Amino acid sequence: MQPNPPPAAPEDATDLIESNDRVIAIVHKHWIGIVGMYVLAAAAAATMATLGVFVIPDLKLSSDALRLSTAVAVFAVVLLAIIFYIIVYVYEQSKLTLTDKSIVQMVQRGLFNRKTSRLSMSNVEDVNVEQRGIIAHLFNYGTLTVQTAGEEDNFVFSNCPNANIYAEQILDARQAYARHHPVE
Q1: Using the 8-state DSSP alphabet, how is residue 52 labeled?
Q2: Is 16 inside any structural domain?
Q3: 158 and 81 in a common domain
Q4: Do 40 and 55 reside in the same domain of the chain?
Q5: Which of 105, 146, 165, 166 has the fewest beta carbons under 10 Å from its own?
């Protein structure tokens, strides 16, 4: 049985990943971070269904008003579905790519607002994981913080699944990098 090959670099990160870098891991945000949106969408759908089944028939609307209210309801459902799709898409675009020489972080903040940063392993000082609350411990996710040398911003990746495992992988990659690239 052969081991799984390392994951390929995401296409949108290839500008910041050098051709001779070996991808160790690609980390996407944990699904728990989007659960609130699923609950909100389900509540909105239940509210619309309740209005459609119980309230609108009791209003004794004319056929034109009933058609108009049905069209408005269909439009609202379609608009809600589009908004929900965009929110999930934006959430799922954030990722952390760990290679043997660097870390590339892509944070999608909106549909047209993305920040991509690259941190060389030589600038990694330390890695911290913070898990707050019982939910984070039950579902094994947390905030992964890569502390950097100098004036560079720390890499903070919230809702990181298996954060402790990825922290270990980053530290292992940092140690391997230091062994192969000794400071003169």
Answers
A1: I
A2: yes
A3: no
A4: yes
A5: 165
- The Cα–Cα gap between 174 and 108 comes to 26
Pair 49, 76 in one domain:
yes
- Give dist(CA 126, CA 170) in Å, integer: 9
Question: pLDDT by residue (tens digit) across 64-110?
Answer: 877 887 788 788 888 888 988 999 999 999 999 999 999 999 999 99
> Are 116 and 13 a contacting pair, CB within 8 Å?
yes
- Beta-sheet strand order (sheet of 155-161): 124-130, 141-148, 155-161
pTM, entire model: 0.77
- For the stretch 132-145, what's the b/e string if a residue is b when 16 or more beta carbons lie within 10 angstroms of its beta carbon? eeeebeeeebbbbb
Residue 6 maps to a domain: no
Q: What is the DSSP letter of 51?
A: I
d(CA 177, CA 184) in angstroms, rounded, equals 14
Residues 146 and 75 in one domain: no
Q: Which amino acid is at 86?
A: I
pLDDT tens digits along 34-74: 998 888 888 888 887 787 777 766 677 777 877 887 788 78
Q: How many beta carbons lie within 10 A of that of residue 127, not counting itself?
A: 21
Residues 69 and 116 in one domain: no
Domain membership flag for residue 148: yes
First to last CA, the chain: 42
Count of CB atoms within 10 A of residue 70's CB? 13
Which pair of structure tokens corresponds to residue 69?
């209210």
Longest CA span, the chain: 85
